[in-house]
Amino acid sequence: MAYKTKEWRNSMRVTVDYNNMMSKFLGEKGIKDSQIRELKDKAEKAFLYVAENRGKDELYMGWTELPYNQEDIVADILATAKEVRKKFKYFVVLGIGGSALGPSMVYNALCHLHYNELPNGKRKGPKFYVEDNVDPVRMAALLDVIEPEKTCFNVISKSGATSETMTQYLIISDILQKAGVDLAENMIFTTDACRGNLIKIDKALGGKVKKYVLPDGVGGRFSELCPVGLLPAAVLGIDIKGLLAGAAYMDSLCSKPNVNSNPALAQAVLQYISMKQGKNIHVLMPYSDNLKLIADWYCQLWAESLGKAVDYDGNTVNAGTTPVKSLGVTDQHSQVQLYIEGPYDKVITFISVGKYGCEMPIPHGCEDIPDVGFLGGHSMQELIQAENKATAYALMMAGRCNYTINMPEVNAFTMGQLMYMLELQTAYAGALLNINTFNQPGVENGKKATFALLGKKGYEGQKQEMDSAPEIDTKYIV
Ligand code: PA5
């Protein structure tokens, strides 16, 4: 069934304005139409690679189909979420990387900014926390504010072998067991369908733990629109059908192989041209506190997907650009000086909001102090939007590449669009670079080194190799 009316959907369309990337506005420093034309065939090829491999599990392209193939899962998730809301005071996600950044981002975007502090009755669900680290201070702090026996723990790990997540699991399960709590009552696992340690753990617990599947062809950083993100969102009372409808809508907007009609492809091509010009830093700067964590999520998506040593032909390419998170207007007073006058090595992507979640008029006052008095009679929305425009203008005047993603509002439908567009953009960029967008060999190496350091069986060779590294030289310690 279609989500809301066609007019409403069209009024909520997320668009990309890339005028400030082009030489018409930036002069010499900008991209010429001819440069985009020269890439036409390559862009079409990248588009086709993604289109032809949609849904293929073996290529980790299962995420493309998530807006369409989860009707039963969504119904099940909504039923579980209802139970969780009735039964628990707290909901804690245990996970890291792709298993944690998505739930945090959607929570930040679509819940009250001080959700956990809201009085009972004003919150749609239990208090919400995401533990995406193994900092002991953070774990202790969490344990100070929750009551474990009144908490639902959603353990999210595709492999069930991620040291961070499994450490969190061990600590929590020990606490629950010592308190005489049946783990199956207080835990939900989101994991691979049949492989992985969470499946083994569930078996040992009598197969009673509620489980959701992290589908085979969906990698961690592309998983927000599957149960990884949908369950926490539903528990928070977020409209998960709206998220998926937004993703499907964006998919339909990206159905052509042309830069001027496909917003995800346009961004990938512009980023690709910029990379080739040595712009190695990619700043994402939303002008909205609700969108602050999209930058964290996007940094992982972009960095882990595109930062690759070799391409598909075996050439050493050391591909990728460094994503940087920034927040408007806060970082105007911290980073923007560098963006306007520092090296020409960045592309700044703004996310602008058409209508904020509420109005906040600025009262008249201090009329005899011109620096302050002019603000009265405007609103905070006007001010933040003016500062956003002004920063884009100043960057443009300084010849700095920037473009703007326009979100009419921040709601489930526009968030679904935004996520899907950025995922598609990343997939197109990877195809343009001829690299494997969906693996993460660098991260895997770090994981193995940790196993070796902590004495995991089977990693003795790696431990020996690490031990034979040069001795620490105290002359380099100051
Ligand atoms: O994007 C990825 O694949 C990674 O960031 C993983 O999400 C992260 O390493 C956690 O892995 P797992 O889900 O197996 O615990």
Question: What's the quick description here?
Answer:
This protein has 478 residues and is of the alpha/beta class. The protein has 20 helices and ten strands.
Strand and helix map with partners:
Layout: H1 6-11, E1 15-17, H2 23-26, H3 33-38, H4 40-52, H5 71-87, E2 90-94, H6 98-110, E3 127-131, H7 136-145, E4 151-156, H8 163-178, H9 183-186, E5 187-191, H10 197-204, E6 210-213, H11 227-235, H12 240-253, H13 263-276, E7 281-286, H14 292-306, E8 322-325, H15 336-341, E9 346-355, H16 370-373, H17 380-397, E10 402-409, H18 412-433, H19 441-453, H20 460-467
Parallel strand pairs: 2-3, 2-4, 4-5, 5-6, 7-8, 7-9, 9-10
Antiparallel strand pairs: 1-10
Bound molecules: 5-phosphoarabinonic acid.
What tags apply to this protein structure?
globular, alpha/beta, Rossmann fold, 2 domains, 478 residues, single chain, five-stranded parallel sheet, 20 helices, binds 5-phosphoarabinonic acid
